[in-house]
Specification:
By secondary structure, this protein is an all-alpha fold. 63% of the residues lie in helices and 0% in strands. The chain has 2 domains: 146 residues, Serine Threonine Protein Phosphatase 5, Tetratricopeptide repeat (Alpha Horseshoe), CATH 1.25.40.10; 102 residues, Tetratricopeptide repeat domain (Serine Threonine Protein Phosphatase 5, Tetratricopeptide repeat, Alpha Horseshoe), CATH 1.25.40.10.
Length: 327
């Protein structure tokens, strides 16, 4: 099943592992300097909210040089006071292993502390940890309980996860109509995973009546946010004329967007388009094999079969694009 994405708040923006990396910040106005001075004073006086706010500034280089080590130190100070925001963020750092050495158990413990204080993002993260078995044993009952708590706080990612749980047949909880309801709540908040899932349901009729036009509409919403499976599905709709007029040129445009993000189904289809010279793509066997190789390395069996056919001197065995959800 698809891995659930976790929150670590603003620290998802920090992709570097050098904690003490310092970059000169742009000049600040007098008012900004005054605000920063007050924030630093409050943090030094032990205000955990100020400590977290200042940590995020150091993390992003807002008014101060980037300094990840200082950011982590401030978060630890706030954590020591039991501040839920800091527990959630630091837990996310331990889980991601980007600002701190990866430690799933430490991530789980910190996240549990924040979740028990009613912190919505932490409740979602905790549900995801239980769902995937990160730092704890897999437990879909606990995942359901914590996702429900976060979903009631309008957390879109938790609402999507609830849809996943209702969609599964684990512990006899399957309810396709309820799954659709939760996916829709998340999709309406802009969650691209949920938007792609809504599209898939309108296409397949899982929990809702089949509606190809709405399927295409929701796939497009996900695709426009850069969701690779949504982009592939838009391409597949154009390829097969599902909910939209068939158009190989537009199909290629979306397939290549997703393929460049590593989406193996799109890499396979780009191989097909290169093999046949379709959608404005020049016929190029070498390029087709390159795309199929990438797709096959990601585990795509259709790409592997196509390559094997060509390598044995036979015409490539190809299949049309099939819509996918991402589980």
């Amino acid at each position: 099943m698809k891995t659930i994405i976790y929150y670590s708040m603003a620290f998802f923006l920090l992709a570097h592992t050098n904690y003490a990396s310092e970059i000169k910040a742009p000049p600040a106005s007098h008012e900004q300097n005054t605000s920063l001075t007050i924030l630093i004073t409050q943090a030094e006086q032990g205000d955990p909210k100020a400590q977290v706010a200042l940590a995020l500034r150091y993390g992003k280089g807002e008014g101060v040089p980037k300094d990840y080590q200082r950011a982590v130190e401030l978060l630890h100070k706030a954590v020591d006071q039991g501040y839920a925001d800091a527990q959630c963020i630091l837990g996310g750092c331990y889980h991601q292993g980007k600002l701190l050495p990866r430690d799933y158990h430490r991530a789980f413990d910190l996240t549990m502390k924040a979740a028990l204080q009613g912190h919505g993002k932490a409740q979602y993260n905790l549900a995801a940890y239980y769902f995937n078995g990160d730092g704890t044993s897999k437990d879909h009952i606990q995942a359901f309980e914590w996702a429900s708590k976060a979903a009631r706080q309008d957390n879109a990612a938790a609402q999507y996860l609830l849809g996943r749980l209702y969609d599964s047949d684990i512990d006899n909880t399957q309810n396709l109509e309820r799954a659709f309801e939760w996916y829709m709540k998340a999709a309406l908040k802009g969650n691209s995973d949920a938007q792609n899932s809504i599209g898939y349901r309108y296409h397949t009729g899982k929990g809702v009546s089949v509606n190809p036009e709405k399927a295409f509409e929701w796939y497009m919403k996900a695709a426009q946010q850069g969701h690779s499976m949504g982009q592939y599905n838009v391409g597949a709709c154009y390829e097969r004329g599902i909910g939209v007029q068939q158009d190989a040129v537009k199909a290629r445009e979306w397939f290549i967007k997703a393929a460049q993000q590593g989406e193996d189904a799109s890499q396979y289809m780009m191989g097909v388009y290169c093999y046949y010279g379709k959608g404005g793509e020049p016929m190029d066997l070498g390029k087709a094999m390159e795309w199929w190789q990438k797709s096959a390395e990601a585990g795509n069996t259709d790409a592997r079969d196509a390559m094997e056919s060509v390598l044995t001197g036979k015409p490539a065995k190809v299949k049309p694009g099939s819509l996918i959800e991402g589980k």
